[in-house]
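DM from R.C. (forwarded with permission)

"hey, sorry to bug you on a friday — could you get me a structure for this? deadline for the figure draft is monday and I only need the backbone to look sensible"
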Amino acid sequence: MNRALDVVDRPTRETVQAYRPYATWSDVLHLASASKHACRYLVTYNLSDYNPSDLDIEIAEPGTVVRLVRTKLADL
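My reply, with the result:
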């Protein structure tokens, strides 16, 4: 499990404020943390809570990510 999961520190208040335009108030903490730690995807069912148009992170539903992983594995 340690290879698949990284537990990271909570982002600072300033970092969260910087990401405030890109997510609802209840989700901005998740986006700030994911972006700060260079995550490629933020997986959620609440796509409409995010607007990361200027960020290098994709907001995706779990099923979308599962299909993506399956496709990548099939190409190996």
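R.C.: lifesaver. Residues 11 and 33 are 6 Å apart (CA to CA).
me: no worries. Residues 13-74 form one domain.
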